[in-house]
Protein: RNA polymerase sigma-70 factor (ECF subfamily)
Organism: Actinokineospora auranticolor
Amino acid sequence: MTDVEALITRVHRDEWARVVATVARRVGDLDIAEDMAAEAFATAVERWPVDGLPPNPGAWLTTTAHRKAIDRLRRESKREEKHREALMRYDAPSPPGAIDDDRLRLVFTCCHPALAVEARTALTLRMVGGLTVPEIARAFLVEETAMSRRITRAKAKINAARIPYGVPLPEDIPRRVTGVRTVLYLIFNEGYLASRPGRDPVRDDLAAEAIRLTRLVHALLPADGETAGLLALMLLTQARRPARVSADGDLVALGKQDRGAWDRTLIAEGHALVRARLASGEAPGRYQILAAINAVHTAARDIEGTDWSQVVALYDQLVVVDPSPIARLNRAIAVAELDGPQAALTEVDGLPLTGYHAFHATRADLLRKLGRTEESRAAYDRAIGLSLNTAEAAFLRRRRGS
């Protein structure tokens, strides 16, 4: 790969969502925005190696995509009406106090309550997170064709319902932000552990974008506890990133990570957010409790020094507000550290998670600690078969062989 090709690849990763979001706001059509962004990048592939790199590649791509979009609107039927509407959208001033970030506008648009929850998440992952349809389909465990239809229908509904491209009015934000948080957390999780086989186990671009957008939402709603909790959770999780993957690209378990490599700046910021929420005296929600759990982990000098009784107590709070099987599975992992593997296995075996790889990986670890080798290997095999991440599957194979 030449230097120019490498740059175009990097620019595509960094600027795709920005270009799509800006053009979508200007022309009011997600399909056109996505198509013209793709054409702009195709033009860059042809011209940049010959003409040289523009001083601001992102601005060049946005301008090129916008011009192509206007040209397309002019060529289409009813072009005058569409062109006039596009120009009105482009020239319309933002309301006072609105955050001037096109990607955040697009997040709220994709998370509009007129769309089904599944459509909101899939559309945002595609348009803002930049995931491909196959990646999103794997994350939702559905066929690619079905996911493609879901995204297409969501875009069509936005156009048909004339859903505006913008951050909602202040009185509408509280009921809209729950869906936004859900989507941002899903984007972060895809960055933290990529679901596509053969891809790098961690996608820093997605994790960083989820954190950036969550910071913007937090700035918009500084008193919203769950948004602050989500930001803290992301920061404390991302802080462990430098030690989570070895030099060979292998995943490293929490207990074996070099804690000296953790990002102390992110940890300090995350801890400050957790302390502020505790000082508020308000009952915590799911993200705040998860952030507090991560605060306990990142405060410990080593795995043996972790306050597991506090972790279990926090999970006890979590299963009250989120009694999901996955929350109970994670609680059982903490119980194993506090009360031993048999107590944890008793809780794990009753969970309806037979299609979830982490369930089988947890059972495998517990069975191994109990000396039930053959059962443990069978559980590892099941976890490996269900794992969507190549590096994670390799990690599980090493655990099985140990």
